[in-house]
Amino acid sequence: MINFACVGTGWITDSFINSAHATGEWKLVAVYSRSAATAEKFAAKYGVTETHTSLDELANNALVQAVYIASPNSFHHEQAKALLAAGKHAIVEKPATSTVAEYEDLVALAKKHNVFLIEAFRHIQEANFKILQKTLADLGPIYGASLNYASYSSRYNNVLAGETPNIFSLDFSGGALVDIGIYCIAAAVALFGKPRSQTYKPVIIATGADGGGHIVLNYETFAVSINASKIYASTAPSEVYGQNGTVVLNAVTDIDRVTFLDAKSKQKSELAGPAAELNLKEEAAEFARIINERDGEAARKLEEISRIVIGVTSDLRKQNGLLFKVERL
Question: In the chain, how many H helices and how many E strands?
């Protein structure tokens, strides 16, 4: 059983805690928030009595073995750095850091203290995503892919009202690319590896951040087209095209349908069943396995995916002048 704490008290933290507890491998023992009242209220839902408003106090809590970090993006590096230095494993929500330099700093620190740094890309741990990965071998030469994740965010209503929510603020390392687009980019990297080059045509909103747009990842013999947005919605499926057929997904995350369309016979084969009811359970189980078994090889594979993804998103942002606060200091 891994005793863990959480940093951040939003809905995603609730999802991770419930999913982690469902694996039987994790136990929430402490909650951190800058507000004591917020920490205590959140902790009470899980029968937890230990709360912290000081990151140093959390880092020095001997009961805590690992920390799940789901604070605003711009805080990830500082918080993970303090916890890794204290010998805690860090599970950091995507994006793990704002810049490549910050990520490499955390990687080096994790290695120095013999702990794991894992970015929480939940979707690439889904059972149905792994079915997709195995199916690629049946497609023959890959001709391309179209990945789609466009969902209207209620927080865009705040932007239209003249406000600047954290998720749409460059000061807090926000924007659709690193919130929604990153799912599609991580999926492409997990499937096909590092692209040779990439381009992004974003829609810039009133806050100065990107609200969505179209991304192209260029590989040696094919391209991956990505439609990602938080300011409009799309119901289009995602597809991978090969010489022998096409694989169609209902979504990039929470995949509950994987269909193979045979190019010659035109026959369809359903390859997957419903997605897991707790959509973070599969990642929580895998992260626990990595920590418990000290599976450095699995951790290094995830580290490389994270390294490539943050390099791609950083390049796409800079192409369009989307600089985070840390890059403007």
Answer: 12, 14
C-alpha 110/C-alpha 104 separation (Å) is 10
CATH number at residue 32: 3.40.50.720
Q: Give domain status of residue 325, yes or no.
A: no
How confident is the model over 66-83, as a mean pLDDT? 98
Contact 156, 202 (CB under 8 A): no
In a domain, 214, yes or no: yes
Beta strand ranges found along 109-267 (DSSP E): 117-120, 142-150, 197-204, 210-218, 223-229, 238-242, 245-249, 258-262
Asked if 273 and 159 sit in the same domain, the reply is yes
Question: Is residue 83 a contact partner of residue 90, using CB atoms and an 8 Å limit?
Answer: yes
Specify whether 144 is located in the same domain as 271.
yes
CA angle at 299 for the pair 295 and 305, rounded to the nearest 5°: 155
Structure tokens at 195: 């692209």
Please check whether residues 153 and 269 belong to one and the same domain: yes
Do strands 268-270 and 258-262 pair parallel, antiparallel, or not at all (unpaired)?
A: antiparallel
Segments forming the whole domain that contains residue 79: 2-120+282-294
Q: What's the pLDDT tens digit per position in 184-214?
A: 999 999 999 999 999 999 999 999 999 999 9
